[in-house]
Amino acid sequence: MACANDITIGILALQGAFAEHQARLSKLQLEKRLVVVLVRVVEDLSRCDALIIPGGESTTIALLARLAGLLEPLRTFVQSKPVWGTCAGAIMISLGVQGAKQGGQDVLGGVSVEIVRNGWGSQVESFEAPLLVDGLREPEKPYPGIFIRAPVILALNPSAQDPDIKVIARLPVGLLPPAQKLVPPDEDDTDPRAAQTVVALRQGNHLLTTFHPELTQDDRFHDYFIRECVLPTLK
Predict the structure, then answer these.
(1) Rounded to two decimals, what is the model's pTM?
(2) CA distances from 71 to 14, 19, 29, 45, 181 (A)
(3) Cys-Cys crosslink for 204: which of 96, 163, 174, 186, Cβ 3.0 to 4.6 Å?
(4) 69-83, 89-103, 119-133, 179-193 — which is least confidently predicted?
(5) Residue 222: which domain range?
C-alpha cells in the first residue's frame, strides 16, 4: 500500500513496452519510495501522481484505452498531472498527428506539437544515435537514443496561454531522413523549421521523447522525469 510520502508512477499497460519502463524505474535510487502501478482501468489511474505512456502502436493503444473506458480519464489526467510519452506515447500526448491510419488517431493532447507517425520509415530503418541531453545526470555522456519506426515532430505550436516548450535533445541534421532535411546545421535553434531535429522536449510537467529510453540499460531519462517533472508537483 502506498504511503503519503511515496511517489506513485503509473505506466499505461494496454500494449507496448510497459514492462521495460517498469524495469528501468525499479533501478532508480530515490530518497522517496517509488510505487509503480500498471494502469489498465480507471481505478489504477486514480492512484497515480504521474503517468508514462510507452512505445508500441499508438492506434492500438488508443483503441484499447477507449474500450477500457480510459480515454476521457486519460485526457483529464493529462491536464493536471505529469505525463511522459515515449515514441507511440509521444504521438498520444501530441495535439495533432499526420500519417494516421484510416479512421484517424485518438490523442490525449497535453503537448503543443504536431507529429507524424513512422517519420523515420519502416522497421528495417530503425537506428541508434548518441544524444546529448540537457539536464540529465552526466550530461556530457551521450545517451543511446533508440529509434524504432519513430515519429518525427513537424512543428512546435504553443499558444500564448501554454507553458513554454523546452527542447532538451536534438538529432544531428545529418541523421534526418531525406524528407526531413529542411534545416542547415548552423540554423538558429529557435527557428520553428528546426522542429524536425527535436527528439526530446518538455512542456510544463510533460515530457515527450520520440525514441525508446525504456529499451536501453540507461536509467537517466527515467531519473530526469521523476526529478524534473514529477517531484516539483508533489511539494
Answers:
(1) 0.89
(2) 12, 21, 32, 11, 35
(3) 163
(4) 179-193
(5) 7-234
